[in-house]
Amino acid sequence: MIRFPYGISNFPAIRTEGYLYLDRTQHIPLLEEAGKQLVFLRPRRFGKSLLLSTLVNYYDVKTTNQFETLFGGLEVGRNPTPERNRYLILRWDFSKVSAQGCIDDIKSSLFNHLNASIEGFIQTYQDMLRFQVRIQDDDALASFQSLCNIVSSSGQQIYLLIDEYDNFANEVLVRDPHNSRRYQDLLEGEGILKSLFKIVKGSVAEGSIGRVFITGVSPLVLADMTSGYNVATDISLMPRFNTLCGITQPELGELVTGVLQHCWQDENQRDGLLQTLKQFYNGYRFCDQLDKPLLYNPILCFYFLRHYQDECTAPRQMLDGNLMMDAARIRYLASQPSGTGVVERILDEESTITLDVLENRFGVEKLTDLQQDESYLLSLLYYFGVLTIVDTDILGKLTLGIPNLVTRALYVDELRQRILPAPKDRIAVANMAEKFYQSADLQPLADYLEQKYFAAFSNRDYAWSNELTIKTAFLTLLFNDIYYVVDSETALQRRYADLVLIIRPSMRQYPTLKDIVLEFKYLSLSDLKLSGEQIREQSRESLAQLPAVQTALNDALQQLQHYRAVLTEKYQEPQRLHCLAVVALGFDRVVWQTL
């Protein structure tokens, strides 16, 4: 039985209590070579805290006697560097700093955390310090400066590790997206964060701090305090550190094999499980070299595999609640001037999202300029882990895309809430969708689309009004990752279906659920040579007989013939498969025909 370290980032506990540990210590010599002051950015819950805990125990002078216990059998244990167990460790975790209240409240929370960390440091290393460190409750910066001076005069050096350096500053920004004043107060001029990192910079120059390792999610805060700390090397996009955090495909394959053996399940289920993990937790790429391994989010994989090992079936809900904070990030970015349009473009697989380079130095002032330059918004979405690098184009530009279905669900939910802000409307849509999953009867949903949903769409400032608009409308209505693998532009033998709802393997036991394929066509009012009023006055039956509508339906049905053959052969349950050709007549009516 595999002991998955779900939610555990304590390296000694993992190594001494029999938990799974995926060895990343081969990177430690590379980190030493990369520089004395490093910044490493990854999305939330990607293993950054465990990495810091590993470094703490490798470099701490107090863990010398535990080296074999902790690192024996690991790559760095077989080939240690000269700097092992050399430093006094000072660790800050800015996720513990509250973003609540006014700037003085935040400053007080930061000072309390810094002073508590310094007090813990003194208790750990008091036998190695020649003089007493002066702790000042109302000025933790002075406490920190005193600590650096005493360590230096004692002939020692600090290794400073900062976890989630941008956490509370980003929380300040996201909580109040239309008022960045508090955020600016933290960073501008002689803001408290800028002042703190000036001391870090000076202490490294003076030799009291030997190394600094900083983790976070985005470079936003780093850019805003750049004049206070402009000496760190950002290793986040360096190809040699692509796998520093995360799970690789081969590692995931071994874990799936172990889980299946524990459940006494046949090895032939391995490919199906890996396919599910790929669809819902697909790989992330953290460099522009496409030959580097794709990575999976560890917390998502551990969530799924631990549940499967315990219950011998997949979890009902594929999105771990611990990652719901990412929805707030999407909501914040969607609230920016060009945000909603970007979300809609991202959901459209036919629209290629490209960037010359990922922005890695941009401040809060750029967030007010997003209508003119989307590169900052797209870069932030990448750093937050809700976009990833999927390819490069013929000019070498980065192509970005949604990494997986659980992330797609966050985008769809954000769009759904913007179009249907009233909870009662979202509940009504969910009930109608659930009935559709069991009957494939489109009439209730079509009625709702015509009476309410299209009005919400047409009242918005859309850059497009075509088949994609209709597909997006249905995607927001029907997306459900509890029952389905919901895919848009699904490849079926090199042809692409517009929207496919395939029952998840663990849900195929429920016979009332249907596999559903929808192919969409859009006809404008000018195509039909009719006004909106004329269209609204006619019955669906008469609209379906219009020559343009007949042509569109027949084209869609012909495409569906191919998709049905492919899916029937794959799933061997033709009685559950329903294929619908759907034609939208402007933003007024919907007609359809079942194959």
TrEMBL record:
Any one Pfam family here would be PDDEXK_9
Note the InterPro entries from the entry: AAA-ATPase-like_dom, PDDEXK_9
- What range(s) does the AAA-ATPase-like domain occupy? 5-225
> Which protein is depicted?
AAA family ATPase
From which organism does this entry originate? Thiothrix winogradskyi
